[in-house]
């Protein structure tokens, strides 16, 4: 009987060729967290992320139920599927947290962000900035002889694209609200 030859890189079932069954692909997830509107809750949520080395790409918080004293925290984060599951489980263990929803996996959702851009320039650059603002449906909320402040609302990708186009035209400042998201209807 001849010895079994195993090709290098093959998907053999050798004990030395074990591969983890989980994915190591980093994914972007949007989490909606309903919490008690009380002092220290946001600090505990942020502490969970910073204490374990998780990154927050975007964070928005606002009271959504005045009578029930509830706030909604929308967090955009990235990680492997296992890290995202860990984050959701750990958020759910915080006493003041009522619900944790992963909008990325629960179905289609709508994400919007508000941003303001200050663009400084003269001549053709001013004209081009106005033309692009019109294409992106951005509003001029302040205008001087030297600058414009544009307001734009849309998906984060739209905001990023607008910023990329404004940079060579004199983009001086950017303020972004962070992502607000809701799951779509049936």
Automatic annotation (TrEMBL):
<dbReference type="InterPro" id="IPR054480">
    <property type="entry name" value="AHAS_small-like_ACT"/>
</dbReference>
<dbReference type="GO" id="GO:1990610">
    <property type="term" value="F:acetolactate synthase regulator activity"/>
</dbReference>
<dbReference type="InterPro" id="IPR002912">
    <property type="entry name" value="ACT_dom"/>
</dbReference>
<dbReference type="GO" id="GO:0009097">
    <property type="term" value="P:isoleucine biosynthetic process"/>
</dbReference>
<dbReference type="InterPro" id="IPR045865">
    <property type="entry name" value="ACT-like_dom_sf"/>
</dbReference>
<feature type="domain" description="ACT">
    <location>
        <begin position="30"/>
        <end position="105"/>
    </location>
</feature>
<dbReference type="GO" id="GO:0003984">
    <property type="term" value="F:acetolactate synthase activity"/>
</dbReference>
<comment type="pathway">
    <text>Amino-acid biosynthesis; L-valine biosynthesis; L-valine from pyruvate: step 1/4.</text>
</comment>
<dbReference type="InterPro" id="IPR019455">
    <property type="entry name" value="Acetolactate_synth_ssu_C"/>
</dbReference>
<dbReference type="InterPro" id="IPR039557">
    <property type="entry name" value="AHAS_ACT"/>
</dbReference>
<dbReference type="InterPro" id="IPR004789">
    <property type="entry name" value="Acetalactate_synth_ssu"/>
</dbReference>
<dbReference type="Pfam" id="PF22629">
    <property type="entry name" value="ACT_AHAS_ss"/>
</dbReference>
<comment type="function">
    <text>Catalyzes the conversion of 2 pyruvate molecules into acetolactate in the first common step of the biosynthetic pathway of the branched-amino acids such as leucine, isoleucine, and valine.</text>
</comment>
<protein>
    <recommendedName>
        <fullName>Acetolactate synthase small subunit</fullName>
        <ecNumber>2.2.1.6</ecNumber>
    </recommendedName>
</protein>
<comment type="subunit">
    <text>Dimer of large and small chains.</text>
</comment>
<keyword id="KW-0100">Branched-chain amino acid biosynthesis</keyword>
<keyword id="KW-0808">Transferase</keyword>
<dbReference type="InterPro" id="IPR027271">
    <property type="entry name" value="Acetolactate_synth/TF_NikR_C"/>
</dbReference>
<dbReference type="GO" id="GO:0005829">
    <property type="term" value="C:cytosol"/>
</dbReference>
<keyword id="KW-0028">Amino-acid biosynthesis</keyword>
<dbReference type="Pfam" id="PF10369">
    <property type="entry name" value="ALS_ss_C"/>
</dbReference>
<comment type="similarity">
    <text>Belongs to the acetolactate synthase small subunit family.</text>
</comment>
<comment type="pathway">
    <text>Amino-acid biosynthesis; L-isoleucine biosynthesis; L-isoleucine from 2-oxobutanoate: step 1/4.</text>
</comment>
<dbReference type="GO" id="GO:0009099">
    <property type="term" value="P:L-valine biosynthetic process"/>
</dbReference>
């Amino acid at each position: 009987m001849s010895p079994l030859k195993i090709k290098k890189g093959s998907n053999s079932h050798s004990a030395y060729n074990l591969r983890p069954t989980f994915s190591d692909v980093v994914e972007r997830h949007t989490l909606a967290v309903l919490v008690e509107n009380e002092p220290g809750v946001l600090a505990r949520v942020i502490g969970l992320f910073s204490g374990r080395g998780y990154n927050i790409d975007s964070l928005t918080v606002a009271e959504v139920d005045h009578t029930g004293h509830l706030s909604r925290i929308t967090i955009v984060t990235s990680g492997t599927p296992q890290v995202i599951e860990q984050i959701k489980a750990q958020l759910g263990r915080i006493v003041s947290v009522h619900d944790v929803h992963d909008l990325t996996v629960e179905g289609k959702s709508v994400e919007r962000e508000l941003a303001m851009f200050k663009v400084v320039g003269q001549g053709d650059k001013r004209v081009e900035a106005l033309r692009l603002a019109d294409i992106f449906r951005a509003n001029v909320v302040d205008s001087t002889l030297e600058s414009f402040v544009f307001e734009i609302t849309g998906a984060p990708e739209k905001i990023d694209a607008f910023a990329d186009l404004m940079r060579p035209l004199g983009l001086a400042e950017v303020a972004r609200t962070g992502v607000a998201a809701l799951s779509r209807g049936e």
